[in-house]
Amino acid sequence: MQKESDATDKNHFALARELAAAFLSGNTVAGAEEDLTSMTRDEALAIQGLVVELLGESVVGWKVGALPDGDLISAPVVAGRLVQSPASLARATYGLGGVEAEIAFRFAKEPSPGKQGFEREDIIDAVEGICPVIEVVTSRWSTALKSPRNAMVADLLSNGALVVGDISRQWRGIALDSLEAQLSINETVVHRSRGGNPQSDLIGLLVTFANDLIRRGLSIAPGQIVTTGSYTGFLTASPGDVIAAEFNEFGPISVKFETI
What we know:
Fumarylacetoacetate hydrolase, domain 2; eight-stranded mixed sheet
């Protein structure tokens, strides 16, 4: 039994090492189909943690989403992939070139749970403010965004980078469920919507996420941001493109995809 456990740990470490190397180089990992399709959530989270450890960077944020089937998925964002708008990214970073406009919450302090875990006021009390975000989406797996869900969790939920705007501290009166969002590529609007985030209750999402973290022995740290899903759906941009996102309550943010 011990030998089987050791073999599993070695396989996890081998996959994590390949993912971490691909994260830095922009290359992809050809994981065995059986490894990817059979990967459990616990295995995915173990690999995810090893990737962060191997990268040797501090965790400065999280991305989190609640899927239609009720599954909660999340991954840490490392320091080198959180950039201030306006930004420019190398090809090795943006990879597949996926882009989404999102809203992120910045935490002034670690939320404190009550006896029954986190509730809404625990989260609201800990939030410093919110900001617009362009999430850059890519994949380190050779199967790209067709990879099984848990394989994507292991790969830091396909995060390439988070491009963030200025923090708004007067956020409590903003109707987050009806924000107007616009995404442009090279000054051409490619998406415009109102209230486009399928998770309309973002505070509720953060409550669920914080409770999930605490069950895993983790927490949201002071200064970290948590981005909460796309208002614009998934779109793609190409080398040389300039991508801009704008919400009606915030100023525009932008990122350029360099050609090399």
